Amino acid sequence: MILFLKAMDLMTKNGSKILVETGVARHGLNKSKSDGASTIIFGLYAKNNGAKLYSVDINSAHITECQKTINKMKCIKYLKRVENCN
Description:
The chain is an alpha/beta fold. It has helices spanning 2-14, 32-35, 38-49, 60-72; strands at residues 18-22, 52-56, 79-82. The mean pLDDT is 76.
């Protein structure tokens, strides 16, 4: 958690505009305490800071599930869904 907060602080200080994440929050916020919610947090950062998040996952079901939460939080225009990266 401390490392994650430091990363967020560094992104804010540097005015990061492009974020790349490998592995989405596959359960949205449902299991965020045990499985992470980085896609949601990065999506909110992107929304609040005029940034863009590119999130990649090899499992399209995980992407679809995460997408539901992103849509509810109105972060969709800040997140680019990336699939089929063969």
